[in-house]
Design brief:
With 422 residues, the chain is mostly beta strands. The protein is 9% helix and 45% strand. An eight-stranded mixed sheet has the order 20-21-22-23-1-26-25-24, with no helix packed on it. Strands 29, 30, 32, 33 and 34 form a five-stranded antiparallel sheet that branches. A hairpin with a 3-residue loop joins strand 29 and strand 30. The chain starts with a helix and ends with a helix.
Amino acid sequence: MGVRIRTALTTLAGLGLWAGSAVASGPAGAANEAATADATVLAATVSTMSVDLCSLPDGTTYVLESAGGAGGQVIEVTSAGSVSTFVAATASLTNPEGIACGTDALFASLGNGDIMKMPLASPTPSAYSTGNSFIPGSLGLDATGRLLVVAQNQATIYVVAPGGGSAASLNVSGLNTGLYNIAVGAAAFFISNQFTGEIFKAPLAGGPASVVASGGHMPAGLALDAAGNLWSVDLTDSTMTMVPGSGASAVSVTLSGVPLGGPGGLAWGGGVLHTQSIDDVGQPLLSLSVTGPPGAPQDVSAVLGAGGVATVTWSAPLSDGGNDIEHYVVTASPGGATCTTTTHTCELAGLMAGTTYSIVVNATSRAGVGAPSSPVLLSLPAPPAPDLPATGGGGLGVVLGVLLLLLGVALLRRTNRAELNP
């Protein structure tokens, strides 16, 4: 984010709260040669007061820009680099804060608490959520059409239901004041803090948030790629951090190509990341080709065979992360039984009767272990009960006969003792 994040940075530096260092989480914060980003200029002249950006799946990118006293406007940049005005400067977008791309509309948050909607087919801004008592920042849409809103002046995430209306608080614990950027995934979302540099992960349904990256960096944008890896650009020193979809520690990204030049905003679309060099004249839009760990294997199934051996099959991830997949690992829990293969099937041995297992598959490339597949459950039948003496028919008769025989022997011995000792 351009104007907003630059203002925040200046304020922090003036207060002595920001040193401008950048440290990636993970072992020694070392750069990972397999996590790379190569930047090229997609459009050289885009804006002068960029605020935020978002991208459609086809790579079309929309830049939200402050127009000063004229309000705000939206610039469209196609995947081929063609630049045009999508929404001309209007008071309806005064004090713009954040933008999100939906399947059929754009959404923009404003400093007065309102959120505007701009249909892609007819981009005239109209009120979508008004009367909010917080300052909305970054926006993100989930698969159901809910709009997630970051409250800049609170440690809170708000949700606007599909169709619009007032925003309601999402019950997420463990956050702190200073929330800024957001990236929304299939089951969870990520938020950065502009003061601490932390990046949090929280479930879409609400619940406790956890820290997935931390350090002295200042995220200027978050984006999830097709493999489920989280990418972050740092405003203070134009570096990048990547959090693997597997949940492993964050790593620094090896950069190449044109310098990022004070990146502002980050979005995924058309198979690449987009950011702006907000310190450069014309605030050019950059396209970043990235490589990272692969995505989650698809269509996992498990069939139990003889001897407690399960045959597990799956299909390739939707994204290989830009690297060839080297092998797959299948893991069963509880117990941790595993098998490894370079194909899409594997036999999992050592499973115990009477146990229900959760089975996941991970793909691995030179960039590391990818996100786990959705788990499948496999229940092994309990072992058969041991054979017991029959309790009916002839079996019962045999048992009674033995008992009577033993009783008769005991009585005979007693009688004999009585005769010998009158």
